[in-house]
Amino acid sequence: MSEATGTGVRSPEFWHDPRFPQVESRRSCRQNSCYRPHTHDRFAVGLIDEGTSAFVGRSGSPVRLEPRDVVLIPAGHVHSCNPVGGDWVYQMMLFDPEWLRVRAWAHDAAFDGAIQVHRDSGVYRLFDDVNAALFEGARDLHGLERLLRRAFAGLGAASVRREDAAGGSALAETLRPVLDVLAEQSEDPRLDDLATAVGMSRYQLIRAVKRATGLTPIAWRNNARVMRARAMLRGGEPITSVAHALGFADQSHFHRVFRAHVATTPGAYVR
């Protein structure tokens, strides 16, 4: 990890490898608030190395994360996590949820749909071993799976904090055409048109999307575009092409939105 800069931020390190598209990871350090509420399309395992941070899920009730805490975040859960004074050093691994789901060793421990915070130094060490193997140049997917099996097997039934998935799946299905347009259409859609398409007023639609997803329509759109951007960048697409394909006004706009969700620039993400 690189040294701290004058802004109190160490440059994040990212790991992704086209041979292992099921996994990506980061190691980072922050001092200032850096993340707005967002979701991942992958199952996230976060490790707190140093410092403390405030983790906020969809309930809006923060939990203080401490060194050697491990947080499990299923795909689609709205959350944010930001430092509480001083350096906050952390790791975050993201796993394709279907790749994990078919492995029985991961299913019972992690896939009950809830955010879990585990305060167990043994569990921390096991997942730390997984991430260390990635950054040390893991070449063997089977060896990586063995480390992951040990880590997930170490999870106990108890956790110091749980947050179940919010309700509203029926509402989300009703809104699916709207959510798909927001996520996939390159041109900015008109909310009035989207609201009319599902028989709502503009303000009813804003409230309904927030209730169903935890995000406003614009926040949902930006979050979805950033998830697509990450996949495109990992696949080798140039930054300018990604910004254009996803309908950002210009590259500066893309950089601002990407940084607000990933706490780094698109260039640093693929470096």
Provide a short characterization of the protein structure.
This protein is 43% helix and 21% strand. The chain is built from 12 helices and 10 strands.
Major β-sheet profile? 7 strands, antiparallel
Oligomeric status: single chain
Amount of helix = 40-55%
CATH homologous superfamily placement of the largest domain: Regulatory protein AraC
N to C succession of SSEs: EEEEEEEEHHEHHEHHHHHHHH
Spans where pLDDT lies below 50 across 5 or more residues: 1-9
Assess the beta-strand content as a share of residues. 15-25%
Q: In the CATH hierarchy, what is the class of the largest domain?
A: Mainly Beta
Annotation, overall tally of beta strands: 10
Tell me the overall shape.
globular
Q: What labels would you give this structure?
A:
single chain; 271 residues; alpha+beta; Jelly Rolls; Arc Repressor Mutant, subunit A; 2 domains; 7-stranded antiparallel sheet; 3-stranded antiparallel sheet; 12 helices; 43% helix; disordered N terminus
What does this structure look like?
The structure is a single chain. By secondary structure, the chain is α+β, with helices and mostly antiparallel strands. It has 2 domains: 10-163, Regulatory protein AraC (Jelly Rolls), CATH 2.60.120.280; 169-213 and 215-270, Homeodomain-like (Arc Repressor Mutant, subunit A). 43% of the residues lie in helices and 21% in strands. The chain has 12 helices and 10 strands. Strands 1-2-8-3-6-9-10 form a 7-stranded antiparallel β-sheet. The longest helix has 18 residues, at 217-234. The chain is globular and about 55 Å long. The protein starts with 9 loop residues before the first strand and ends with a helix. Residues 1-9 have low confidence and may be disordered.
